[in-house]
Automatic annotation (TrEMBL):
GO terms for cellular component: RQC complex. One of its GO terms (biological process) is rescue of stalled ribosome. It holds the Pfam family NFACT-R_1. The keyword Lipid metabolism does not apply. Residues 308-335 form a coiled coil. It comes from Oceanivirga miroungae. Keywords: Coiled coil. InterPro entries: NFACT_RNA-bd, RQC_Subunit_NEMF. This is Fibronectin-binding protein-like protein A. One of its GO terms (molecular function) is ribosomal large subunit binding. The keyword Metal-binding does not apply. The lineage of its organism: Bacteria, Fusobacteriati, Fusobacteriota, Fusobacteriia, Fusobacteriales. Residues 382-468 form the NFACT RNA-binding domain.
């Protein structure tokens, strides 16, 4: 959240004035319907009206989306190549006026006012001539005021109370009105003075510096969350689907558990075939398995031998079905484990490029938000007490860590029985504290609760599951370390 009242805005405007006064507008660039830049040689006066409305000097370049609003086209026509003569606050409110001058074709000086209004929910940008007649409005239909072309621009009534300043002591109020320091508190509140002395904070050299950090940080978080949302939706749909299948399989197995009974009846009937006559619906025979007389139902339309064959066929069919169900259950559990692991990787991921790797792995196409990185991300690596430790942050990296970086006699670690990262320790004769450090790394990057068991074994004991998803492995000859 940004808290800049009239006082804070006056300090921000002072910073902007000192950097763009007397500069020539080289370019005007829009990005979407709520943001645009006035570009000078080395400065970028950036306006944004999204979650929070603000104007500041942006350090980093913004990608042009080639979205041209009528308002931006009008700015280009009228004020491109003009000179900034002043930047000021109007009516002691959060209204910023960038006063401009430009030579027309007859070498006459034309004056313009580019007015930015930040009045609570009423945010607008208005271009006027030197007499304050409106030439263009960015948002012509969002205010109760008349902002039509040709109308006289009038400064709205001042309704901006400096509520934080109002509650200060007289001494502190005088100080805060005359000087400032740009602050972002740990709760992500950006303001222009230390209103909350006991809260943790970071102080910046200027409000523009603080605003650049604030928006870069919140923008990256917002982009990450936006990027994660469809990936998690895809993953969780698959988790839900697989859980439904797993709920049904045991019931089907239960229904087929007595398939051996059909073979038993077929064996008994075959031993007593001489008793079976054409057209019989049942026959009484001796069950030599249970040492008792039983009745076996028959199909009167089948011959005695065909009745035996029918029972054997039913046995074979149910046996095959049970085996297939058990195999399917293992496959579904492995697939569910895989998607639970993908969910973990997405939730833990802190870089767009990492999310793109997961998208590629899952076959999800999403070009709305891109990292623009063409080079492959480096595998996570650190050196602990002289031992190189590598860790995967998704399935693609797990595969690389285990089967490309890891050699036969390197140590391989994984949190026990839960989805998580593959970890490799390079080298032999690994000390117990190094092993414990790597185990904690594996545990902290798993679905565990930061405490629990971690399996470890030589990499040569790790093998891919045949037909399994990427980085799905099985391992033998392992030991377990408990992390408390």
């Amino acid at each position: 959240m940004i808290y800049l009242d009239t006082v804070g805005f006056s300090f921000l405007v002072s910073e902007i004035r000192s950097r763009i006064k007397d500069l020539k507008i080289r370019k005007i660039q829009s990005y979407d319907s709520n943001s645009f830049s006035i570009l000078f040689n080395k400065e970028n006066l950036y306006f944004e009206n999204k979650k929070e409305a603000i104007i500041y000097l942006k350090d980093k370049k913004v990608e042009n989306t080639n979205k041209e609003l009528n308002f931006i086209l009008k700015l280009k026509k009228d004020i491109l190549s003009s000179i900034v003569k002043d930047v000021s606050i109007l009516s002691n409110d959060r209204i910023v006026n960038v006063k401009l001058e430009k030579l027309d074709l007859l070498n006459n000086i034309k004056e313009y006012n580019l007015i930015y209004e930040f009045l609570g929910k009423s945010v607008n940008v208005i271009l006027t001539d030197e007499k304050y007649e409106i030439l263009a409005t960015m948002y012509p239909n969002i205010s109760n005021r008349v902002l039509l072309k040709g109308a006289k621009y009038e400064v709205p009534e001042n309704n901006n109370e400096s509520r934080l300043v109002k509650n200060l002591s007289l001494e502190k109020k005088e100080k805060f009105l005359s000087s400032y320091e740009a602050i972002i508190y740990d709760n992500n509140l950006l303001t222009y003075n230390d209103f909350y002395e006991n809260k943790k904070k970071t102080v910046y050299n200027s409000l523009n510096e603080a605003l650049n950090f604030y928006f870069e940080n919140t923008s990256e978080i917002s982009q990450m969350e936006t990027k994660k949302r469809p990936i998690l939706k895809n993953i969780r749909q698959n988790i839900k689907r697989l859980n439904k299948i797993l709920e049904k399989i045991p019931k089907d197995i239960e229904e087929n558990k007595n398939y051996e009974e059909n073979k038993k009846l077929a064996d008994i009937l075959l031993a007593n075939l001489y008793k079976v006559k054409e057209g019989m619906e049942k026959v009484q025979v001796f069950d030599y398995y249970e040492n008792k007389e039983i009745n076996i139902s028959l199909d009167k339309n089948l011959s005695p031998s065909k009745n035996v064959e029918k029972l054997y066929n039913k046995y074979s069919k149910l046996k095959r079905k049970k085996i297939a169900l058990e195999k399917r259950e293992v496959e579904v559990k492995n697939e569910l484990y895989y998607y639970l692991e993908q969910e973990l990787f997405v939730l833990n991921e802190k870089e767009l490029v990492g999310l793109e790797e997961i998208e590629k792995e899952l076959g999800i196409k999403n070009t709305k938000i891109s990292s623009n990185k063409k080079e492959k991300r480096k595998i996570y690596h650190e050196n602990y007490q002289g031992f190189d430790i590598y860790m995967g942050r998704n399935s693609t990296e797990n595969e690389e860590v285990t089967f490309k970086i890891g050699k036969n006699n390197d140590m391989w670690l994984h949190a026990k029985d839960v989805p998580g990262s593959h970890v490799i320790i390079k080298g032999n004769n690994i000390p117990s504290d190094v092993l414990e450090y790597a185990a904690k790394l594996a545990l902290n990057n798993s679905k565990s609760d930061k405490r629990g068991d971690v399996d470890y074994t030589l990499k040569k004991n790790v093998s891919k599951i045949k037909g399994g998803k990427k980085a799905m492995v099985t391992y033998v000859n392992h030991n377990t370390i408990n992390i408390k």
